[in-house]
Each structure stands twice: as C-alpha cells, then as structure tokens.
Amino acid sequence: MTPEEFRRYGRQVVDWIADYHERIASMPVLSQVKPGDVQDALPARPPEEGEGFEGVLADLERIVLPGVTHWQHPSFFAYFPSNTSGPAILGDLLSSGLGVQGMLWATSPACTEMETRVADWMVDLLGLPAAFRGNGVIQDSASSACLVALLAAVQRTGGSAARDGIDRRHTLYVSSQTHSSLEKAARITGIGSANVRVVDVDPGTLAMDPAHLDALLTEDAAAGAVPVMVCATVGTTSTTAVDPVPAIGEVCRGHGVWLHVDAAYAGVAAVCPEFRWVNDGLAEHADSYSTNPHKWLLTNFDCTLLWLADRAPMIEALSILPEYLRNQATTSGDVIDYRDWQIPLGRRFRALKLWSVIRWYGAEGLRAHIRAGARLADALASWIAADPAFEVRDHHPFGLVCFRPRWAGLAPDEADAATLALMERLNASGDLYLTHTRVGGRVLLRLAVGGPATEERHVRAAWDRIREEAARPTA
Amino acid sequence: MTPEEFRRYGRQVVDWIADYHERIASMPVLSQVKPGDVQDALPARPPEEGEGFEGVLADLERIVLPGVTHWQHPSFFAYFPSNTSGPAILGDLLSSGLGVQGMLWATSPACTEMETRVADWMVDLLGLPAAFRGNGVIQDSASSACLVALLAAVQRTGGSAARDGIDRRHTLYVSSQTHSSLEKAARITGIGSANVRVVDVDPGTLAMDPAHLDALLTEDAAAGAVPVMVCATVGTTSTTAVDPVPAIGEVCRGHGVWLHVDAAYAGVAAVCPEFRWVNDGLAEHADSYSTNPHKWLLTNFDCTLLWLADRAPMIEALSILPEYLRNQATTSGDVIDYRDWQIPLGRRFRALKLWSVIRWYGAEGLRAHIRAGARLADALASWIAADPAFEVRDHHPFGLVCFRPRWAGLAPDEADAATLALMERLNASGDLYLTHTRVGGRVLLRLAVGGPATEERHVRAAWDRIREEAARPTA
C-alpha cells in the first residue's frame, strides 16, 4: 500500500469509525447472529489475488457488524465497561503506524521511557504510594498482572522454583469473590487449583475476613506448606465488594506473605479525591497492585497497569539473557528492559494511547468521566430502591448496581430462573445488554455503567425496559 | 472527543503516519538518545487540564521520534523484521475503533469466528495439516504460544498438575539454539530451568540431534522424570537453523511426548511452494505449531498464530467458568471461547488486521514479499562470499545472513572483540542496524532482510558500509 493509498483508505477508515460511533445507538447491543453465521459468511478459502480496501469496508458492514456485540453502545451494561475514546484510538493508531517493538530499552528507548513516565503520571493521578514510582509497567490484562505478581511472590519465598521447579506445597489465598484469573494463575505456575485457599467473606459485604485468612495461613504453615501470596480485591467482578486491605496487609506482614491488590476495575476511580479511599493500605502493605485504564479510564484494551514495591524478585524470576539480546544499554544496568516484567518477549508501544488519553482529558476530564458513571449508578440504585417490585444491593460505590425483581410468590429457585429468563429476554431484544451473578446462591442482575457514550437517558431507558419486561406475563 | 474532532485529528494522524513512512529513510535507524533523555523531556507531572491533540503530535516529533529505533526503516536489519503494512495498520485501527472485547464467543461472535476463519485461511496459505483446521488461535507472541502449548502438554501427561500443582519432575527438551522463551515457559509453569534438557546440535548445521534426544528421554524416564514436551525449531533466532522435525517427531512418538514446533520467524515462508519444506513432519508429528505473521508477513505486532492438533488438553488446563461468565452459547458447547486458549482473559479483535492483510495482498502478494526478502538475502550472501576479507555461513535459507570479517592476524578473542566493535560503530552511525550472535563461541554478525521498505539498494548500501567500516583503521 503506497503512502497515497494509505492516506485515502486511512481517511475512509477514520470516517467509518466516526460514523460507527454516531450510529451505534441504533444497532442492537448484543449481536443477534447464531453460531456459525459469521464464519459461514466469510469465504472458505483465502484470496489468491489482492484487492482494494473497499472490499474490507464493505464486508465490515455486511458480515462483521451483525456479528459484533457493541461494547461502546450507550446501552451496554454487561460485565464491566471496556472504555475506548478518540484519543485512545489515535494513540493506538500511532503505535501501529510506528511499528516499533519495545522488548528492550535499546529497541526503542521512547517506548520504554514513555511507559515509565506515564506509569508515574498514574501514580500522581491516583495518589499511589511513592514506592511505585519507577516501578510501573503496562500489561495486556489484569490476568497477566496477577500472574507476574505471583511469579515474583514465589521467587521471594526464597525457594529455588525458577531453577528447580515447584518442589514444595505453595498456597495462594483468595476469597470466593476473587477473580478467576487468580486460580488460572495458580494452574499456570504449577501451584495448582487445590492449593488455592478460599478465605471466608462477610456474608453481607462479601469482603474477605482477615481473621480467617490469619487462621488459614497459620494452619497451612503448620502443615508444611509455603504460603506465597494473598490477593485482596478492591471492587470485585461480581458485586464490586471491597476487601479490607489494611487489615489483610497486617496479616500478610505477620506471616511474611506477598500481598497483591487487584483493583482492575475500581482502582482508577482514585483519580477523584472522594474515591481515594480505594488506596487504603497500599502504601503500608501492597507488594504489587494493578488497575485497568482499559476498563473505566477511556483507554482502549489492552492497558493494565501493574506496579511493584520492589521489582527485584520479578526480574530474578523472569530474566534470561541469550546472546542475541545482549546489548550495551542492558549490560550497563542503567535502563529498564520491560521484557523481564512480563510473560511475552515482544511488546507494543502501548504507552502512546495512555499518554494521549491523559493529555486530551487532563486530570479534570478523567475525574468528570468517573463521576458521571458513579452518579448514574447512584441514580439507578435510587430508582430501583423506590420500586417495591425490586430489591437492590446497598453496596454500589462505583458504577455497578446489583438488583433483582422480588418475584412475589415464587420459590427461590423459581425466582432465580425467572431472573435469568428476564435477562435473556432483555439481551435478546437488543435494547440493552446486562449480565448476572450469584450472591448467597441467588441470582442478581448486574448493570454496570461507565461507557463514555452512556447518558442518564440511556440508564433511564434501560430501567424502564427492565421494569416493563419484568411485569410482562410470560408463557 | 466528538466525532467531528475525531475525523479532523484522525486525518492528521493518518497523514502523519504516511509522512513518517515517506521520510523514515532520512532518520538514523537506531535511536541516538541516552538513557533518561526521553523521560526527562516528558513533563514530570500529568496535566491538570486537557488540551488539543496538536500537543501530542508536536511532542511526537520533538520528544518521541528521536527516541525511536525505526523498525520499519529500510536499513533495519537487526533481530528479525517486525513487519507492518498499510492494511495491517488500518485493520488494527478498525479493531481499536470497534472497541470490542472477545473473551467469549457471546461477547462478540465476529471476533471469534473471523479469527477461526482467518486461522483456517492460514492453514490453506501455508499448506498446514488438516488437523489444524478449526484449531487455530491468535496469541500476542510466540512466547505465549509455547507457554500455552507447554501447559497443554503437562495436562496430557495425565498427572494432576492443574489441580494439585507440579508434583513430579517434569522435563522439557530444547537445544542450545532454541528460543529463550522456552526456558522462560519452564520457569513460569513451575517446571524449572534445571529441568530444561539441552539436546546436542550438529556443530555444522546447528540442528538438533534426534539420537541424543532419544537418549536423554530414555535416561530421564529411567530416572523417574516425566518428559513433557520437545520443542523443535524451524528457523532459529540465532542463525535460522532448522531442526529435523520428522526424525524428532519419530522420537517423540516413541516416547509419547508432546512435540511443539516453533517456526516463529520462518513458518510463514511456506506461503511459497518452494518453502513448503518448512512444514516437513508437521502433519505426522506436531501436537502444536506456531508462526508469527508479525515478523515476516506484513502484519503488525502482535499477531502469532498457534495451532493444536487436539485442543482438549489445553482447554482442560486453562478453563475455569465463574458465574459472571456463564452464558447460553458457552453452555451449548457449539462455540469457541478463546479465553480458554490463552493466558489472559480479555482479548482484542486481532483477526481484523490479518484479514485485512490477506485480502489486500492475496496469496500472490504475500509470496512476492517473502521471495523478495529471501532473494535479497541470497544476493547479500553471494557478495559476502566473493569478498576474501569476510566469511559467511552457507546456511541462509530465509532472510537472515550470518557473517564476519576474517580479521587476518587477530587471535579469536581479539577478532570477536573487533567484530562487536565494528557492529557498535555501524549501529551508532545510524546508517543501519544489525545485531550479533555466537556460533561455536565466535561472534557473527546477523543481517536480517525482510522489511517491506527494504530494497536491493538498501542491502547494497549496508554491505558497502560494513566493508568500508571494517577496513577503516581504528584507534
């Protein structure tokens, strides 16, 4: 593709994206295709001859869009938001256009140094501990961040796992509310699912019980296990429960165990002073911490930030230097080589998109975005609370509200089935998209606000639609 | 950013990228900055107020570009190429613009189904085994691909590692030429570096010795170890050596051990019939196979393809289904949820860029690109061979040529130091960028051709520059 062709098609793609966001609200949120529809519509064999980019754009409309679930739709309330924004898209486009690969400082110093600087900006923006300064790195996801933290934690136990493999019973501490990526990390690292110890939670708040954690740690150590890491969560996936990090941190300190704090969704809220409490305990206790600008901070996937209070055990665990990667800058020790801070070797210039976002919005703009989401969630929760046909969980400090119809007269299992059926009907309608969870065995609907396109009228329309659908007699 | 602002700034960014590629040859290939220069030039604190995108573009010129090592420069010959191209950039831009997250089929069916289809297209384009059809997935890197393969291989040994953790001595088989990501994977999975067994190579071809592999497997099993996986490489990083996959596969079959074939760099060459030999043994023996369109196939990082002959052990190793991810499509078993095929949970719509590349170039265009790189490498090797002051390795089947000055009169260690000093001077000049390796203890220069912008005149200029610099008297 010549530069002239790139200019021409590039404008078409930019316009297509702008048009897409302008008309997105007219499309069904959840894709209506059936398994195999998209695959069947794509040619079974690759083309022998090349063609103009017009064909890609035409098939994007004809084949791809019907198969897309529109995460940027103003009525997308499922999972957590996966924010994007104009400056993020353009920052990422610059990264693709530069086409550099920043595995080593030497292979593009700006890729490494902007990442360090922007991670430090996030320390300022979120009010994170000073020890995190210079110790931040962008990962693809919170899953990878917790995996890297776990490998560092294993290294810090002083065993020889990196050299000899796992040869002791290591244990990892989570609650029933912790993200499944922690169990996945236990499997990947050779620790094993059975050695993931599930700490009790308070049945009301769903927050981890530090006393039970303490008891488990004591019991396991007495039984000869080597506890590796505790994962506390600020803003769980299910209900945005908040574990008591200061108290958990005290327990970790007492047992000499690594504390990872997973604030994948909620951590970025700390950009607002009124949410700074999400950082409680980090400065005193956190060995590692992660939060995702790609969820609620206007930066498109993938962009997770991971910080470590001490990077040394991570690098001991992950660094291997073959001859073909040796270079003067690495040998000097004066630079960061981010390849040793992650699972893969190669890496994109992801700092560009976060840099673009922070400059475009400024701290003020980021705060306004977080506040808008939290305010809409508060409004929704108040509307639900005012409707006697529904019940809502009191706890909704961020953008997620959990609730359900009361289903007067139905047994608990019947009520759960009715709630799930309601959700399926709503999602199938294409009018909105929401997901569910279970608390104390009972099904709750989850409605997560926080997409940049979502305004009060969309939340209001969603709530009206839910009430209407719940009241409808079903066959 | 409003749609109108996005259109305006989007055009500016597209033009900036087109301009960048038009003027790239005038910039020094290797960044000339010193450690800290870029970081110091970026403000120490994030902005309180937002600003227009003009500031980003201005600082891109002023701060970022001087700190960039230009991987797309026609005189970039280091490592392996990290191709990008217009259609790849635009396909990736579409992915950013759509902003979907394809962890599950249900969260965007097109993201999953286009990936499956495009991976099948690659099976056709490269002439890969029929068993790979429907079993391909895009990973971020070959490192992650081999890690996933290793986890599947551990699962297939029939132990209970996913549940109970690593509780036997598992062994992994590589050669001294295997990529360092295999040892990294052994550390990550809890197998340990010390259980990575290094199989002898032929001192001439540097290819793995199947007889020694057989002996090691027998010895380890007799000593009570559980061999997990053998990694054969087609096109090693150091010199593009090619392991004898058919013979290695026979040994693996005899011992019931998983065979992963890492063709990260060279595998895509099979798009040309004359390179189809790189697939020898795959159909009969490979349990998993990976190659990187992001190296030599015009698709920007990150885009590694991983195929498995049988996906079941991978999914057993990696699948965990919490309540908040349950959905009808997953429960039906009719769809692929790619989250179980990778380390992270979330995933970008990466298939769009590969789809765009294949449609724009067609099979013909992809073949022309591979042939251009291989032809230039052949030409370079012939020029070096004709110069009595240099020696060149005979083996250069792809785009990489390894060579060195003979340095008449210098002892081997002095010659190595002179070769490294030559490389440092060349790289510091900004005229070209190349890296080095060691073979039999001796330093060789590596010159990898294959960037889309590289023409014969650039390779010729590089060779002239190397000869001139090698002949220059140094202090």
UniProtKB/TrEMBL annotation, chains A, B:
<dbReference type="InterPro" id="IPR010977">
    <property type="entry name" value="Aromatic_deC"/>
</dbReference>
<dbReference type="Pfam" id="PF00282">
    <property type="entry name" value="Pyridoxal_deC"/>
</dbReference>
<dbReference type="InterPro" id="IPR015422">
    <property type="entry name" value="PyrdxlP-dep_Trfase_small"/>
</dbReference>
<keyword id="KW-0663">Pyridoxal phosphate</keyword>
<feature type="modified residue" description="N6-(pyridoxal phosphate)lysine">
    <location>
        <position position="295"/>
    </location>
</feature>
<dbReference type="InterPro" id="IPR015424">
    <property type="entry name" value="PyrdxlP-dep_Trfase"/>
</dbReference>
<dbReference type="GO" id="GO:0004058">
    <property type="term" value="F:aromatic-L-amino-acid decarboxylase activity"/>
</dbReference>
<dbReference type="GO" id="GO:0019752">
    <property type="term" value="P:carboxylic acid metabolic process"/>
</dbReference>
<protein>
    <submittedName>
        <fullName>Aromatic-L-amino-acid decarboxylase</fullName>
        <ecNumber>4.1.1.28</ecNumber>
    </submittedName>
</protein>
<comment type="similarity">
    <text>Belongs to the group II decarboxylase family.</text>
</comment>
<dbReference type="InterPro" id="IPR015421">
    <property type="entry name" value="PyrdxlP-dep_Trfase_major"/>
</dbReference>
<keyword id="KW-0210">Decarboxylase</keyword>
<keyword id="KW-0456">Lyase</keyword>
<dbReference type="GO" id="GO:0005737">
    <property type="term" value="C:cytoplasm"/>
</dbReference>
<dbReference type="GO" id="GO:0006520">
    <property type="term" value="P:amino acid metabolic process"/>
</dbReference>
<dbReference type="GO" id="GO:0030170">
    <property type="term" value="F:pyridoxal phosphate binding"/>
</dbReference>
<dbReference type="InterPro" id="IPR002129">
    <property type="entry name" value="PyrdxlP-dep_de-COase"/>
</dbReference>
